[in-house]
């Protein structure tokens, strides 16, 4: 896979020490290949600028954004949308791995990505790749096809997917509908190819959608899975569906039931839009 096909986008906001770890992990993963890396940084401070300078040979382009009085929810949406649209629409790539600054990626994330795309890119109901997992599979190179939404910290989407997301409509709601809540019901009409072992470590300490108790469980189980994946090197990558206990509604994808899933998507979308009008 060449650099014009795949790119990486990193969203960061005044967490220079975490950004440094993220970029170090990408440097290691790119020891044998090179893909463009786009940085979207909000309200950069001197420490952030020092990290960008440190990794300038790795970074393709930096986009600076300002809060400018916007609500937090709107900024989160805008930053995510820009992190997708800059590489996919602005720079002509076909796929982008979108990372939050508090993750470290696995050394084989690009080999895994290339193989999963080769096996699934032409399948109609394929929406992208999720890199997180709580599981500890025996075979490190496997992935499952899951009926689930997009993992915010580390995931891949393609140009075809974001066109179907209708992001311009989402922008009209400001931050009233979070980006992940907007895309999830649509993505769940198909599947996300999901690594059976976590291919990222999450170094964050709090989340925007979870309680402290569930945060602790998330970090513990995901990072244990990540360490499990480092115990051996994957030599082949292939689909082997296993149950993922990420959330109660995370299920193995089945071809049957497509009409029912689409009707559910339509019902959720109508409800989301109606709720913003109240």
Blueprint of the fold:
Elements: E1 6-12, H1 16-29, E2 37-42, H2 46-54, E3 61-65, H3 72-90, E4 95-100, E5 103-105, H4 109-120, E6 126-130, E7 142-147, E8 154-158, H5 159-165, H6 167-171, H7 179-187, E9 191-195, E10 200-202, H8 212-229, E11 238-239, E12 251-252, H9 258-277
Parallel strand pairs: 1-2, 1-4, 2-3, 6-9, 7-11
Antiparallel strand pairs: 4-8, 5-10, 6-8, 7-9, 7-12
Helix pairs in contact: 1-2
Would you give an account of this structure?
The chain is α/β, with parallel strands linked by helices. Strand 1, helix 1 and strand 2 form a beta-alpha-beta unit. Helix 1 packs parallel to helix 2. The longest helix has 20 residues.
CATH class: Alpha Beta
Largest sheet: 10 strands, mixed
CATH hierarchy: architecture: Alpha-Beta Complex
Q: Whole-number average pLDDT?
A: 92
CATH level-four homologous superfamily name: Spore Coat Polysaccharide Biosynthesis Protein SpsA, Chain A
Helix amount, in percent?
Answer: 40-55%
Number of strands: 12
What brief labels describe this structure?
9 helices; 278 residues; two-stranded antiparallel sheet; Spore Coat Polysaccharide Biosynthesis Protein SpsA, Chain A
Question: How would you concisely characterize the structure shown here?
Answer:
This protein is of the alpha/beta class and 278 residues long. It is built from nine helices and twelve strands.
